[in-house]
Amino acid sequence: MNKKTLTFHKNSLILRDMNTVELQFPKGILFTPKNIEEMVSLNPGLSLQFTDSGVTISEGDMRFSNMDFFKLLLPFKMQEEDLHRIGELNQHLKLEGEEKGIIVNMGTTILIGAFTAAILITVGVWNRKMKLGRVADSSTGHDMQTEEGKKHRIPDVSFIAYKKFTSKVLDSNSRVGSPTLCIEVVSNRDSLNQDLEKMEEDWMQGGTEIGLVVCPHRKKYYIFESGQKDYKTLSFSKPFAHKLLPELILDFDALLQEAMEECC
């Protein structure tokens, strides 16, 4: 697999057609026979082969080509330092994680990449004018506290208002917490539910004010708001705007058309 991580990566390659992932673990994490047995049991959709340095993950019933990401469940709890060490060892991958699992992101196509870049540029240009906060791309990790514990997640696009940014820098490494706006773009036609669940269970529970899951395959986007139980579904024909983001307009229909013209 040839993709580089968010908090850990600088360059990203496309992983969509890969069906095997090699994941290295720090030397301090040992896979005992009991751990191996439990890990295989926890991941029935994956084929796992263990080595001295980690694990090779292959497709079982789970098909990587149909997913934006998959989760490798662990039979032990990881510390936050362990997760970041794993990221350093696997800089060819885009990894997210939590105490009991690691998320491996599968990459995307050039069209979805161009569409995501157009969204990022639009938000960036808006913020340069308004000067309301910080805009980040998919090379920025967010460490958030949820009911299930601390989670490290990587959005496609995020915006953090200055007021929130100054109060939510977590440590000396300047890792930030939940954003004001989080945007996740659906890479694979069959993975919409994955991204909706991730937005609700991770980003919104972690303190994000506004979450957007943008699906170019269906030409729809889904709005999550802090304090609201259900998300709203809107067509690309209706541009996105929000009172917490004055003057920001995201015309996803026009941005997708722009990306298609660039890629064709």
Describe the structure.
The protein has 264 residues and is α+β, with helices and mostly antiparallel strands. The protein folds into 2 domains: 20-105; 110-263, tt1808, chain A, CATH 3.90.1570. It is 28% helix and 30% strand. The strands form 4 sheets. Strands 7-10-11-12-13-14 form a 6-stranded mixed β-sheet, sandwiched between helices. The longest helix is centred in the middle third of the chain and has 21 residues, at 110-130. It starts with 19 loop residues before the first strand and ends with a helix.
Residue-averaged pLDDT, rounded? 84
Q: How would a textbook summarize the main sheet? A: 6 strands, mixed
According to CATH, what is the topology of the largest domain? Answer: tt1808, chain A
Uncertain residue segments: 1-17
> Which CATH first-tier class of the largest domain would you pick?
Alpha Beta
DSSP summary, beta strand count = 16
Secondary structure elements and pairings:
Blueprint: E1 20-24, H1 33-42, E2 46-50, E3 54-59, E4 69-73, H2 80-89, E5 95-98, E6 101-105, H3 110-130, E7 133-136, E8 142-146, E9 149-153, E10 157-161, H4 162-168, E11 181-185, H5 192-204, E12 210-215, E13 220-225, E14 232-235, E15 240-242, E16 245-250, H6 252-263
Parallel strand pairs: 11-12
Antiparallel strand pairs: 1-3, 2-3, 4-6, 5-6, 5-9, 7-10, 8-9, 10-11, 12-13, 13-14, 15-16
Helix pairs in contact: 3-6
Quick overview:
It contains six helices and 16 strands. The chain has 264 residues and is of the alpha+beta class.
